[in-house]
Amino acid sequence: MERINIPEIFGSCVFNDKVMRARLSDDVYASLKKTIDENVKLDENVADIVAEEMKKWALENGATHFTHWFQPLTGVTAEKHDSFITPAPDGGVLLEFSGKELIKGEPDASSFPSGGLRATFEARGYTAWDPTSYAFIKDHTLCIPTAFCSYSGEALDKKTPLLRSMQAINREAKRVLKLFGNEDVKYIKTSVGPEQEYFLVDQEVYDKRPDLVYTGRTLFGAMPPKGQELDDHYFGVIKPRVAEYMADLNEELWKLGILAKTEHNEVAPAQHELAPIYSTTNVATDSNQLTMEIMKKVARRHGMVCLLHEKPFAGVNGSGKHNNWSIGTDTGVNLLSPGKTPYENAQFLLFLCAVIQAVDDYQDLLRLSVATAGNDHRLGADEAPPAIISVFLGDELTEILEAIKNDTPYQGTEEEKMKLGVHALPRFAKDTTDRNRTSPFAFTGNKFEFRSLGSANSIACSNIMLNAAVAESLHQYANELEKAENFEEALHDLIKRVITEHERILFDGNGYGEEWIKEAERRGLSNLKTTADAMPRLLDKKNMDMLIKHKVFTETELHSRCEIMLENYVKTVNIEGLTMVDMVRKNYLPAMERYLFRLAQTTSLMRKVSDKVKCNYEVSTMERMSELTDAILEAVKALEDALGKLKTLDNIFESSEFVRDEMLPKMENLRKYVDEAEMLTSQRDWPFPSYGQILFSVK
Ligand code: ADP
Ligand code: MG
Fold first, then answer.
1. Is the pTM of this model over 0.90?
2. CB of 148 closer than 6 A to ligand 1?
3. pLDDT digits (tens, 9 = 90+) for 273-323
4. Are strands 441-443 and 391-392 parallel, antiparallel or unpaired?
5. Pair 431, 44: CB distance under 8 Å
6. Counting ligands in written order, which one lies closest to the CA of residue 432?
């Protein structure tokens, strides 16, 4: 393999800090930097200069076009390319790019989902530059990360509310930090490192499966004799073809300044994982969107297809995404890292409490932030965290919180009682040894890992909710502590009260067990099993009030988002239903009929030749297959009826419940018969590649 110079290629396609510092004057750089770090409005003259330099840099690096790159509510990214050319008076062309073009774009975006927003307000939307995420070059195009809004300012994308949620947590965390005497902190930022799981399958095999092509997952397929039982794939040796893919992928990502770091095989055959080094939340979100895009693109170059669907194969582990999340100051302090002194630890404990309370108060928001038709197949199955949201802290922290709650000494604090005030809060070491893979929300030493995300989810959604919910806890704490006469006593009382009130969300046991479901119900935790159950909770008064108060969403935006997400759920399942009908009518039933014909022909011929033959195999297979074709016919008719009925429903809440209660069970039922038939039919006569052939297609 060719040797690559990593430091040289890293970020070579990015208009990053290094490039800016080298190409911009000190004044312009300082002004832009202030905008990036402190969210100060950018001067128009500065924008013109930056645009000019950006253009020159892009042209030098082979770009011919530019685009405002944004993240509409479809969940994937969007771009519309414009070339830099403008006609010159002499008949030639000039290459131009102004500050205005950098800052604002007007894509004709009438086909993006808006949940009625654009129809109600203005027909067109506009995109606005997000200077906090670096511009980059992809496919000869300068891509400028942007937010996407309607003319009346309503967000039509995932980035705008994410940036707003970061502002909210920044505002409230700074208030709290001030109370601890941290006057030098200019801003706080949340960081995320998303671990991304995916499947790789051979393109030829993929192309033969209409369900994979149309829906991203297999809608039929009997289990192969060998699945993941042996756990021989997990962290196993990476196959040469996959290794080449990973090397190529890393190089592409590095060029885009994405810190791809860890890669390994996952539990299921053909399943892999890629983790980047963490970065600021909105940058991490942009990077993860790009990573998913590049993963798919590079796979094609290697004759493979990268599946990002949450559950491409029933009965085999699906793919998730772990959202590692922390809060840090511009002075370099990770606020979720236990400190060295009791005082630092008091601050840490308060931030810890803020997260615990946030997760408890807004379980439903976190749950719905990961809700999609695809992810519903994972949550609650014994492979991914349950749909019930709980927090895992590990032994040491749990003991400390217990001690604070009961005013009993913790081993580190000797004879002093917690009640004596903040100085008695314990010293302890960061503990990263404790792991609980079944917890949806686990503390892992200096960060929380939210594990319920699906592999195809944009991480924007969970981080919006997480940031906003934690901002709300901090807001309440700041209000209380700012008024306190004795800060240390008030702080101690507050921490103690939060622990007592939110203890129910803490759970260190097995999240996959039946008992937990019952226990969680006793504790009053919510268990929103499907998207149809979870999404409408976005409009609960408590949730809307909080999100509106922190200016993360407006009321109209919330209504539109709920509608769009539910529409997405309904449309996804509708396409799956139609694909099933298509495959059954055009392929499965005719294939079974051919096989039945052969069996019948064979039986009658054999009986003509000899009266001793019993034809047990032929006859018993024929009998069961014939029952199955009848059952399949009934099941496909029922599904067709449901698809017809779905078309007549025009209330999105009703449609999504219909999908949950009628469509999905009917699809499941149809599949059951077809999968049984697969086991009875000769492989030669079966119309599509089997699970075994797909899962082990990459040699
Ligand atoms: P694990 O073994 O728990 O999955 P790793 O250290 O491998 O832990 O990290 C997993 C992900 O968490 C990586 O993407 C990493 O960059 C990210 N990460 C590590 N520290 C932090 C942090 N302080 N804040 C946010 N993400 C982090
Ligand atoms: Mg992890």
1. yes
2. no
3. 999 999 999 999 999 999 999 999 999 999 999 999 999 999 999 999 999
4. parallel
5. no
6. 1
